[in-house]
Amino acid sequence: MATVAQLPAGKALTVRDAADAFLDSLGNPNTVRNYAIGVGKTAERVGEARPLGQVADEEIGEALEAL
Fold first, then answer.
1. CB burial class (10 A; 0-12, 13-18, 19+) of residue 43?
2. Which one is predicted more confidently, 4 or 42?
3. d(C-alpha 2, C-alpha 22), whole Å
4. Quick one: CA torsion of 13, 19, 25, 28, rounded to 10 degrees?
5. What distance in Å separates the CA atoms of residue 29 and residue 7, rounded to the nearest whole number?
6. Is residue 4 over pLDDT 80?
7. Whole-angstrom Cα distance, residue 9 to residue 22?
8. pLDDT at residue 8, rounded to an integer
9. Residue of 29, 66, 31, 28 whose CA lies nearest to 46
10. CA 56 to each of CA 24, 39, 52: distance values in angstroms, whole numbers, following the listed order
11. How far apart (Å, rounded) are the C-alpha atoms in residues 40 and 46?
């Protein structure tokens, strides 16, 4: 069953920070390796250095559809 990955509080996160926090929350190394491909490409397409709070939900959806 899936769980929610809590992001670090008190710091402005970039898209890459959030992606890494999500991947770090996964326990199985095989899952991490496979998810890292999709999560990494999505973060790259949205802009890894962008503040996460400035990314609209629609942008994530558009990036996933494009990939």
1. buried
2. 42
3. 12
4. -170
5. 20
6. no
7. 14
8. 67
9. 66
10. 23, 16, 9
11. 10
| 14-40 core/surface letters (b: 16 or more CB in 10 A; e: else) | bbbbbbbebbeebeeeeeeeeeeeebe
Give the amino acid at 40: G
Give 14's contacts (C-beta < 8 A, 6+ positions apart).
48, 49, 50, 51, 52
Q: pLDDT digit string (tens) for 20-63?
A: 989 998 989 999 999 999 999 999 999 999 999 899 999 999 99
pTM (two decimals): 0.80
Q: Which residue has the tokens 């069953």?
A: 1
What is the band of 2 on the pLDDT scale with cuts at 50, 70, 90?
A: low
Tokens of 32: 């991490």
Q: What is the pLDDT of residue 12?
A: 82
